[in-house]
Amino acid sequence: MKPYTLPLLLSLLLNSPTSWAGGIEQLKAFVAGSDSLQADFTQQVTGQRAANSQQASGHVMIQRPGKFRWTYTKPYDQVIVGDGQKLWLYDKDIEQVTVKKLDQALGSSPAALLAGSNDIEKAYVLKDAGSKDGLDWLDAKPKSSESTFQSVKMGFAKNELVVMELKDNFGQTTVIRFNKLERNPKLSADQFKFVPPKGVDVISE
């Protein structure tokens, strides 16, 4: 089971107010107030059986709207790049690149919450989910019946997105935790370009 979750996607630190809002307001604040980010992440995917749990880690960069680069370094070498028009998924182990139109790939996926436009509620129904484990939570349910995800939960601490919990239609739960986050860094445009290596299979969808 490989970590093909789009993340996508990601946490942002914003200017800190003197008091902290609920999960929905914190989400809207960091999406509206951040143009770019980079962070390390760990990801755990759990199936219907605990024995199916898979862990991965890597680094993510985002330039809103629509540009991102997820690099998985453990246990697989895998790169997911959104260049603003296309989504590129490169699996080094099997020497294969999959290409999709970015708007179709994002849609109401979790990546749209972080790398898409500011109009979050166009694709999601948002609901505050209270406080737990020192975090303020929100629950986001996609409006589209074609989404592969049932729900996305996001936990914030002082306007910092700390964790995302994604439940898909296949009985899997993906938990992504972020650390060493840098907000609004200057990112090279080359990071969001992808040219398939020579000799790999390229599959267009």
From TrEMBL:
Keywords: Chaperone, Periplasm, Protein transport, Signal, Transport. GO terms for biological process: lipoprotein localization to outer membrane; lipoprotein transport. It is found in: Periplasm. Residues 1-21 form the signal peptide. CDD domains: LolA (cd16325). Gene3D superfamilies: Lipoprotein localisation LolA/LolB/LppX. Its main location: periplasm. InterPro entries: LolA/LolB/LppX, OM_lipoprot_carrier_LolA-like, OM_lipoprot_carrier_LolA_Pbac. Pfam families: LolA. GO terms for cellular component: periplasmic space. Monomer. Participates in the translocation of lipoproteins from the inner membrane to the outer membrane. Only forms a complex with a lipoprotein if the residue after the N-terminal Cys is not an aspartate (The Asp acts as a targeting signal to indicate that the lipoprotein should stay in the inner membrane). Belongs to the LolA family. This is Outer-membrane lipoprotein carrier protein. It comes from Chitinivorax tropicus. The lineage of its organism: Bacteria, Pseudomonadati, Pseudomonadota, Betaproteobacteria, Chitinivorax.
